[in-house]
Amino acid sequence: MRKDRGGTVMSEEPASNANPSRRPTFGAFLRSEPTLFPQDQDNEYHAVAAAANGNRRFSNASATPSPARYYFASPSAGYSTSSPSPYLMSPLNQLSPYAKSPWIMPSPLLGGFPGNNGLVGSLIRKEGHVYSLAATGDLLYTGSDSKNIRVWKNFREFSGFKSNSGLVKAIVVAGDRVFTGHQDGKIRVWKKPSKDNRLLDNLSVAPHKRIGSLPTLKDYIKSSVNPKNYVQVRRHSKVLRIKHFDAVSCLSLNQEAGILYSGSWDKTMKVWRLSDSKCLESVDAHDDAINSIASGFDGLVFTGSADGTVKVWRMELHGKGTRHFLIRLLLDQESAVTSLAVSEASGVVYSGSSDGVVNFWTRQKHLSHGGALRGHKLAVLCMAAAGNLVLSGSADKSISVWRRDPVTGAHSWLSVLTGHGGPIKCLAVEQDPTTPGSDNNDEGEENDGRWIVYSGSLDKSVRIWTVSEQMPEMRPYPSPRRSPE
């Protein structure tokens, strides 16, 4: 079943190659330099927000103790508004008892603050645009174009380490190891310091130690002996198939299978075994740059590309390695696919595109197209799913929050989070430790769906928000117009 170009394709068989001429029209979003996203003067979200808040800055430099070079923004510095605009009458502006979260505990930096349901604060270190982040437990990792990976805890810079591999485009944490994907095509592997190395004040730790790269030197040398292991990338240039030769744009972890997936602008997906860091497989997945990869339910992995397609791959064991087979083409459109998110609990796959639209498919209906969500005026650059919520960050500097009804599957538009001064490049979500039913809550109550959201932006800041599945919707979102059967 197929629509004309720009529509949606649902197919059981792989479709023909997409038009290779698409990528130049999306080059700006691939590189995402701040100058490529001029402020849209007609953007209602930001015009109303600026008027309501008087263009106030949310960074409190005067509260920053020397010699720290980062700023923390208190939620009391802004975001409360009496504006009647539905974009700012967010149900997030309500009080909620967030007292135990490691990110919301009273900090010496602020002297304590009330737990607002909405913006909690900001981490700003004027050294580079934030392109990637990963949240794990009480630690937050951020990567930027300064080549630094910063580690934060309780609103403080907890630790940090630097790579010489260029811009940090992706971060994944697996146990005591941290994997980072870089602009120069390298994947670095770092080891967390042990608890014995923590300082007595519990404010910092010994630096993370780089323990290798992917592929490993051993595999690189072993593969280089056989000419069949090389692929032609340019007229007079060949590279090893197990190595990315362009930017590593995305990483995804399949913890159960012990596998790390990497996607690259070289159009390939590579499969790495965590136990020995061996490259099990290199897949020529797309006709243009891979922008997002997501390991999902039922052993499936999803890839989204600048060629406008979303593909579904199934993994099968093949001797001591793996084989991935293309089983579905979920989407084929003119606009580049920029981001993916998978809700394993709900069985829903989401994709964001350069046209600002979020499409989704449901496992319950054999990955049939469920509809489209429209909450942005510019490209969707990142997505995250948690519980019944899905969030999309955009070049329009806003984050849209949606809730999926677990019974009907309908989506409600809950809120638009604004405050960033640049395109939002990365999102991460963790369950609020104070949520009843969470691992860190001993009350044994039923989970009511409260989450902590981290957003990284080209404005060089990371903002921290709280959201809840129980918040009232901003407005009912109409049922999407489905593709013809």
From TrEMBL:
Superkingdom of origin: Eukaryota
Annotated TM spans: none
Entry annotated with the keyword Repeat: yes
Classification via Pfam families: WD40
Keywords of this entry: Repeat, WD repeat
Keyword Endoplasmic reticulum on entry: no
UniProt cross-references to InterPro entries, sorted A to Z: JINGUBANG-like, WD40/YVTN_repeat-like_dom_sf, WD40_PAC1, WD40_repeat_dom_sf, WD40_rpt
Region of interest called Disordered, as start-end residue ranges on this chain: 1-29, 430-450
WD repeat spans: 241-282, 283-316, 330-361, 373-402
PANTHER family in alphabetical order: F-BOX AND WD40 DOMAIN PROTEIN, OS12G0594000 PROTEIN
Protein name, entry field: Uncharacterized protein
